[in-house]
Amino acid sequence: MIFLRYILFPVVPVYYLVTWLRNRLYDLGIKKSTAYDFPVICVGNLSVGGTGKTPMIEYLVTLLKDDFLVATLSRGYKRKTEGFQLANKDATAESIGDEPFQFYNKFKNDILVAVDANRTNGIKQLRSIDDQPEVILLDDAFQHRKVKAGFNILLTTYSNPYFKDVVLPTGNLREPRSGSKRANIIVITKCPNDLSDAERDAILKKIAPETNQHVFFSSISYSNNVISSNMTKSIEALEDFTLVTGIANATPLVNFLSEKELRFEHLNFKDHHEFSKQDIVELNKKELIVTTEKDFMRLKQYESLQDKLFYLPISVVINDTEKMNGLIRDFVKTKL
């Protein structure tokens, strides 16, 4: 795969030019974007792969849900339905996608969860319901330029920041690095807990943020417990188990569990893996399974796994929570 990417390097300038031109047409107003007079916050990235969008959306939900009626809007990647869908008690990972299903399960009494590949239509549909949301959070919509979000949060990982990358197909960037200038906030995600001030300064120098941009650093905080559909266990109490992951980068999770000196085998599937019947047959042979919350949403439907399937919750820790929360709250208040 890596060799193929290098072979395709001559395509990089073509991809760069096409995506740059598309953005330029939007910037000049030749291609039209829809702006809104209420708070629309976009969380996205420049690269393919996992940068931590799901926990960031959950961070924003937790920040805003007690004071405002919040809705999340995702495209519903790999769902089996089409068009606009508003999550309800009959929703599944197949009907709305695994990440939105995770949002719904965690916050169903507090927020609205919707999916639509056409974000403009999704926003229109959300605002047409009787109990319309005051704030809409767009999940993975940074390149969806037909919607002009009032506030953009751009995520990039510590291990593979966008300023060290190139566009597809040789690199991982969906668009040129210059796209970062659209962000109000840039968050370097999945940082080590011991990140030094000197290293932060070096990263800031590479990013060279505009005067209106703010840069934050975040890390992952893992829970001390794993959770199933009907019980909770301490991580320290786990003995031999099977770790099942279907995410873009499982390395931080594997490192965390290894540092705990836990004994486990790791079944590592590709991101958004659709578990087959044979996969479930094999998993049924395992005595104890620990997985991510996103994978748990896809696997919990299988009754045969109910008593052995647990997920490890995670949360986002921001280096300057007060400042970041203040910026987001100030934006919401000025738009309402």
UniProtKB/TrEMBL annotation:
Query: GO MF terms on file?
Result: ATP binding; lipid-A 4'-kinase activity
What's an example Gene Ontology biological process for this entry? lipid A biosynthetic process
What reaction gets catalysed by this protein? a lipid A disaccharide + ATP = a lipid IVA + ADP + H(+)
**GO cellular component terms attached to this protein's record:** plasma membrane
Q: What Enzyme Commission number(s) appear in the record?
A: 2.7.1.130
Superkingdom, taxonomy of origin: Bacteria
Which residue windows are transmembrane per the record? none
What PANTHER family does this protein's entry cite? Answer: TETRAACYLDISACCHARIDE 4'-KINASE, TETRAACYLDISACCHARIDE 4'-KINASE, MITOCHONDRIAL-RELATED
The family annotation for this protein states:
Belongs to the LpxK family.
Q: What name goes with this protein? A: Tetraacyldisaccharide 4'-kinase
Q: Which organism is it from?
A: Flavivirga eckloniae
The gene name on file is lpxK
